Amino acid sequence: MAAPVSRLTLSESLALGPEWRHACHAMLYAPEPGKLFGRIPLRYAVLMQMRFDGRLGFPGGFVDVHKGSLEDGLNRELAEELGDAASGFRVERSDYRSSHAAASAPRVVAHFYAKLLAREQLLAVERAAPHARDHGLEVLGLVRVPLYTLRDGVGGLPAFLDNVFIGTARDQLLEALQDLKIVDSNYISGIKLPARR
Question: Which CATH class is domain 5-189?
Answer without folding.
Answer: alpha beta
